[in-house]
Amino acid sequence: MKTSHVIRDAAFGAIKKLHPRAMVKNPVMFVVEIVAALTTILFVRDIALGRGSFGFALQINLWLWFTVLFANFAEALAEGRGKARAASLRATKVDMTAKKLADQKLKLWRKVPAWELERGDLVLVETGELIPSDGEVVEGVASVDESAITGESAPVIRESGGDRSAVTGGTRVLSDTIVVRITATQGSTFLDRMIALVEGAERQKTPNEIALNILLAGLTLIFVFAVATIPAFAAYAGGRISVLVLVALFVTLIPTTIGALLSAIGIAGMDRLVRFNVLAMSGRAVEAAGDVDTLLLDKTGTITLGNRQATAFLPLPGVDERDLADAAQLASISDETPEGRSIVVLAKEKYGIRGRDVGHAHFVPFSAQTRLSGIDLDGITIRKGAVDAVLAWAGPAADADALKSIADTIAKQGGTPLAVARDGILLGVIHLKDIVKGGIRERFAALRQMGIRTVMITGDNPLTAAAIAAESGVDDFLAQATPETKLKLIRDEQAKGKLVAMCGDGTNDAPALAQADVGVAMNTGTMAAREAGNMVDLDSDPTKLIEIVEIGKQLLMTRGALTTFSIANDVAKYFAIIPAMFLAFYPQLQALNVMGLHSPESAILSAIIFNALIIIALIPLALKGVTYRPIGAAALLTRNLFLYGLGGVVVPFLGIKLIDVAITAIGLV
Amino acid sequence: MTANAILQIVLFAAAVTLTVKPLGAYMAAVFEGRRTVLSPVFAPVERLLYRAAGLNPSTEQHWTAYALAMLAFSVAGLVLLYAILRLQAYLPFNPQGLPNVPADLAFNTAVSFVTNTNWQSYAGETTLSYFSQMVGLTMHNFVSAATGIALAIALIRGFARRSAKTVGNFWVDLVRATLYVLLPLALVMALVLIGQGVPQNFSAYTAVTTLEGLKQTLAQGPVASQEAIKMIGTNGGGFFNANSAHPFENPTAITNFIELWSILAISAALTHTFGRMVGNTRQGWAIFAVMGLLWLGGQAVCSVAEYQPSVKLAALHVDQTPNAQQAGGNMEGKEVRFGIVNSTLWAVATTDASNGSVNAMHDSFTPLGGLVPMFNIELGEIVFGGVGSGLYGMLLFAILAMFVAGLMVGRTPEYLGKKLEAREVKMAILAILVTPLATLIPAAIASVTPAGLAGLNNAGPHGFSEILYAFSSAAGNNGSAFAGLTANTTFYNLTLAVAMLLGRFLWIVPMLAVAGSLAAKKIVPASEGTFPTTGPLFVGLLTGVVLIVGGLTFFPALALGPLAEHFAMHAGALY
């Protein structure tokens, strides 16, 4: 959508939101609407009776309404950014049909509209068809275009079993045929939730937002007392203050700036996540992200590059290094895993051992049970794999201890030892090395500055884990992690009062994801993982957790900064309005007119104009968010207090003075 | 200001600061139930009291039970005191044969002493018998102060405990505060005062012939015992109408200094008790620093204002410089023996703390000099404040300040490891709302009703200041008067009583709710992302929040009172 359209829609939205039922959700602005309505009634009455100062009263009335409208505009604008995306998402939803299977084996199906599907139904999805609802692939492999959800045009593979079985309703199968078991009823699918989220329709106030609203309502009440008692105090001095002026003072004093922008800030925070391709299932989760104390990060893919690479062949004494390389290459030649390929590459680079035709050989793939892989070729059997597994396979051997000591050395350096044996004879060890991602050390340092402890989760043994932890700069690690130890770690941290964030994709991550305060599920993951987490990362990039934390912090900071700014503004407003208000009976109070404003009318009008315009001026900041810097809490507070506290005191003095000069020059008062 | 004045201010500040640590640590030991130096003396008495009351001192109370116990105790005290005042003619120790106190005045006085306000619509020496003074007032001076301390301890426990259901036992805290803290301090102080010439007797008033040959009646009585607790318990209700300006209440430079110190001593030391009990004394010193800064600011403004030469006299070329022969500045309404700085020291301290005793007439201060005591009270009586009430008030402000600060550093706000959520914010703001509510609304009523205006002795903005000060004092449970207002009328007796009740109990109940809610929370361990509440940044932040909330609330009223008077004075108009 074009910017002009977004603004036009937001302007219409602003007017629609004037409905009291919509306004009542925002106590501060609702109060402004009530007093604006009240002064408008008084204004009309005064016109009918032919009394009062028409021009001045009209302008105050208009600016009161503008204040409300600007607040609504900010909210509508924030919502508008998500609307476009919601519309395109909704388009994919229309007219989806499903081939509902009556029998999985016989592939007997009948066409039904997608909304008739229920949990547990099996549907057949063939090339070119849309997947009708969220589900789990139970049969087949297919490449799926998920761009409707993720915006990423490259197709992804979805297959039954394993951690890539989840499919999302509204995505399209590009090739092959799959059978999907439906896991969500219509109305609560991922797509539905996503539409609701980006539209802000389901937006509920977050805990901090509720607390802040209470604070703002309380401040508003304080100003009710401060302003409502003025007529009596003035009457004592023989003065009379018009309702219009009192309302003007009241509206400028109550925290309208933050009140007006509060919901826009919340919506924009969610929107930033959505743009970042992360879907938060609740605003609460986004806030919790800002509070996270402990970050659990999977080693693979987050801290290290996904693949380990072979970096050296370490033969046992008496074994030729080239012989070891040759056996290792042979064992890996049909091994399509990245590790296997890196062994072949290393053998070629170091010893010029080329690929061979092993068409007639029997390749033994790696399995989690045996933890071995290898090859049976012309009566020779070669196995490579975990050290203890290879030792067990080779049987008792004199040089087992030598092998173990080589393996230990590798492990201490953070590598993974891969033992190689041929025909029951131990040959040596391949050093597989984890490659730590560039720049990750700096990121952990930044997290430490934020007060966040990082814990690396790995299936590696403690030695390897410690070495990688040291190399990457992570604060702590959990080695030989199992779903149970992960869950226990989270519970222990939480018992200490800490908030824990983690990401995961597999079904066995689901309990930990559910237990964590912030659980980010990878979109490539299983449906169980996606349902357990409170955020889904559509890009399936585990490093994003760090940015999610920053977005959460930014959300809170923006609220805090604008609250401070809003309250600090009141000082200048008092100095504008108080002398103007009391001048008629206490002329000596002119001394408080430190800004030298032109007249009482111009002073009051300038204050209320400033109060309305500052809302518009701060919309970009509310939508973009206050910049977060990982510089430690005290430094951050100093910076924000200086910018928004001191700035909040100074800016309105300048702004009100400028507006006063301007409206006096063009003769508005 | 003179060098001598600055030296006296420094001496006073040093005296208060020096006792913070020993007294604060002692109180922490008392309320944590540890053995103290005075345990051999008081522990048997304490046990006896519990046995007599059938109380198990190790049973703790949920905050609601704590609040109910406190309310029940206060109501009972209110009824008792009202009865004593209404029946004093029939009660013993009434050598002057003073009649029963009228209903409205008795109600006002009873409320005043139960709420630790000690607003006095009466003159002690012509209204109250010795029985009323001792059994009625002095007793309440002890227990209302002890109640304040107990409540502050309950809030501290809220911060210090984790995942706890209870905040302590009101009765135990009340007994300990009275026995271990107030009684020994008051006893020692009373003896020193007696040594300095403060009367302590049950004699009838003495008629004497003055040097001028005139007849004068010298009022006297058990003054020293009441004076001591009046000061140390931030009560402030004088035995005599002239309060601590009276030579029998405050005869010498030494008594003046001791009494000054005693205004702030316990309230200041409680910050250290707080630090000890939450396990980090620097937290307590930070709060002390906030209070100290706010005191210093007020002291500076008030002293400078009072040392200003009178505008009118300056126009007549009168020499107003301070020198050996004259105090200089504004001496109207001040005791010559105290001079300017000891009058401002007292005025600022007594309004920072909700003491309310006076040794000079605030009504006669310059407009800005008088603005300081008034604004001190309007800040909510949290600059040291009343014993206990000052600390819990300041901690509620700290909760609000940390809420906004916490957001600004991008975390769910927390203070001392306790997450500040909707409930804490709601209760803190409810409590803080009470000061404007109970001050401004009745002041507005008084400034437009004939009954309210009838009591005024001065016109213009100064008259308005008198009304505003009276209700600020009542709502803040201070009890000092600007004077110039005839408050012993049905209108003022009742409205001021209501303001005192609101100002005390509407603060306390939400405060205890905060204590209960905090106690139930876990303690979040501090990290780099936690904003430290022990440094100058926190001190500055909290000071700023207190000033801004107070300033924004009362600016219009202050503009119409002291500020209008100040600018008018410079334009040549006096009221």
Automatic annotation (TrEMBL), chain A:
Species in which this protein is naturally found? Rhizomicrobium electricum
Among CDD domains, the record links this protein to:
P-type_ATPase_K
Q: Which family does it belong to?
A: Belongs to the cation transport ATPase (P-type) (TC 3.A.3) family. Type IA subfamily.
How does this chain assemble?
Answer: The system is composed of three essential subunits: KdpA, KdpB and KdpC.
- Report the active site residues: 298
Enzyme Commission number(s) from the entry = 7.2.2.6
Its recorded reaction(s) are: K(+)(out) + ATP + H2O = K(+)(in) + ADP + phosphate + H(+)
| Localization per record | Cell membrane; Membrane
Report the top EC class in one word. Answer: translocase
Name the Pfam families on file: E1-E2_ATPase (PF00122), Hydrolase (PF00702)
Topology in the lipid bilayer: Multi-pass membrane protein
Domain of life according to the entry: Bacteria
Can you tell me which residues bind ATP? Answer: 335, 339, 366-373, 384
- Give the transmembrane ranges: 26-44, 56-78, 210-237, 243-267, 571-591, 603-623, 643-668
Q: Where is the P-type ATPase A domain?
A: 97-199
Where does this protein hold Mg(2+)?
A: 505, 509
Query: What does this chain do?
Result: Part of the high-affinity ATP-driven potassium transport (or Kdp) system, which catalyzes the hydrolysis of ATP coupled with the electrogenic transport of potassium into the cytoplasm. This subunit is responsible for energy coupling to the transport system and for the release of the potassium ions to the cytoplasm.
Which protein is depicted? Answer: Potassium-transporting ATPase ATP-binding subunit
**Keywords, sorted A to Z:** ATP-binding, Cell membrane, Ion transport, Magnesium, Membrane, Metal-binding, Nucleotide-binding, Phosphoprotein, Potassium, Potassium transport, Translocase, Transmembrane, Transmembrane helix, Transport
Q: Does the keyword Metal-binding apply?
A: yes
TrEMBL record, chain B:
Q: Does the keyword Ion transport apply?
A: yes
Localized where?
Answer: Cell membrane
Under the heading Pfam families, the entry gives: KdpA
How this chain sits in the membrane, per its record, is: Multi-pass membrane protein
Question: What are the entry keywords?
Answer: Cell membrane, Ion transport, Membrane, Potassium, Potassium transport, Transmembrane, Transmembrane helix, Transport
Query: Is Heme one of the keywords UniProt gives this record?
Result: no
The UniProt transmembrane annotation reads: 6-29, 65-85, 137-156, 177-198, 253-274, 286-307, 382-407, 428-447, 494-518, 538-560
Q: Tell me its family.
A: Belongs to the KdpA family.
Q: What does this protein do?
A: Part of the high-affinity ATP-driven potassium transport (or Kdp) system, which catalyzes the hydrolysis of ATP coupled with the electrogenic transport of potassium into the cytoplasm. This subunit binds the extracellular potassium ions and delivers the ions to the membrane domain of KdpB through an intramembrane tunnel.
Concerning PANTHER family, the annotation shows: POTASSIUM-TRANSPORTING ATPASE A CHAIN, POTASSIUM-TRANSPORTING ATPASE POTASSIUM-BINDING SUBUNIT
Q: Note the subunit structure.
A: The system is composed of three essential subunits: KdpA, KdpB and KdpC.
Q: What is this protein called?
A: Potassium-transporting ATPase potassium-binding subunit
Q: Name the source organism.
A: Rhizomicrobium electricum
